[in-house]
Structure formats: C-alpha cells, structure tokens
Model the fold of this input.
Amino acid sequence: MTKPLIAVTCGDRILFQTDYYGGERVSYTLATVTRAIQKAGGLAVILPIHDPALSASYIEKMDGLVLTGGADVSPQFYGQNPKPKINRFDPRRDEREFELLEQALELHMPILGICRGFQLINIALGGDVYQDLSYHPNISVQHDQLTNANMPVHSIDVKAHSHFASLTPNQSTVNSYHHQVIHHLADDLQAVAWSEDGIIEAAEALNDDYNIVAVQYHPENIIDENPVHLNVFTDFIQRVNDYRS
Ligand code: MN
Done:
C-alpha cells in the first residue's frame, strides 16, 4: 500500500521585518508534527491558508486529518465573550478548521487533535473550555511549563481498557504547555487520561460514529525523549490505513 496522505492544519502570521519575506503572510506549522507523521509512516501535507469553501476539495484527497496546536479558539464558537486572560485568537483559522473537521467527520476519516486541535474538536462537537487555567477552580499542576517543550513534566492517569490505554501506558509523563483546559467535554467524546488535578489530557470518540483521538499535550515534541509517545502517531496511521482498506 502507498503511504497515506495526512492533512495537517496550519496557523498563519505576518513574518517579522527581519525575516526573509518580512511583512508577508505565511502558513506555518511545527516541524515536529510533520516529522512525527513521517516517522509513523504517513506523508504529511500542510494545508495552507484557504477559503473554507475549499475544505471539502482538500479533504477528499486526504486519508487522515491532524488538527495542530496554536492560538486559542475564538470564544464566539462556544457562546462566550473573551475573558481578560484569553490569549490571541483568530476566527478565520477557526472557520477553516471547523470546516475541514466537518468534512472529515462526514467521511468517518481518522482524526488526531493536538492541544488546540483537541479543544477545537471538543468545541465543534458541543463542548467548551476554560479560557485560562486561572478560571479553573482546582489547578495544582503546572500546565504551562517553562521547561523546554521536549521535556515531559507531569504524569497522566490513563483509563484502563480504553483505546488510548493500548498506546500510552498508565502513569506516562507528558509535556504540558497549554493555558486553556477542557471544561465541558462533548457528549460524543470520552475522557481517557487526566493529570493529577483532574484536567482532561486525552479523549477519544465515545463510539464508532467518529474516529478521533485527541491529546492536550504535545506528543510530537517528546518522541525522542520517550519513544512510547510516537505510538499516538503510529496508532493514527494504523487507523488511517484501516480506513483506506
Ligand atoms: Mn497538562
């Protein structure tokens, strides 16, 4: 079988004047994400800034969808005004990604959500987030680590017998650089990993209607530090190959 094509979402920004093409808008994503997909056997394809109306055309060429990390999701999509501690958000990126997600869900395509991607999936399916860690009543773990991104810092409890448990051992240590956390989890998702203070660190589809695994941490940045975290990507590519055949 040929290698599967994996759509990878991107952020967009204006380059600094000191950069080559300074002042121009660019599409970008973390190289650690595309590398992890390649290591797991997929061909990563970064989807550029586009009109959401093109989403169906993009998705029909693809075999899997990875929703990557980045800015906060605009709170308008879960019916709230921005609170003082929300970070930068970009409703245009949100609209592109909601549309890509909707098209992928319609095809029952395998989906992997990472950090913002997890939150975006949750919001699309009817859940919401705390706009900042400080709005959550019981945070006792540092979730926005100052340590380098490739350093696993906090442990997670993994739900026994879940799909996620087949790829990530209980009491694994993960990195953590998110300032928002899941509040209400969407009905079609189930929590499958938690930090010690009860924050949802991973979720998967509740039933076969959807093919989703989503993580709050960044496994792509700790696959060298602890190769067990590559399993999130090898499992995803396995699901993609099952979907294709
Ligand atoms: Mn965390």
In short: The pocket of manganese (II) ion is lined by residues 143, 154, 176, 178, 195, 199, 201, 216-217 (CB under 6 Å). The first strand starts at residue 5 and ends at 8.
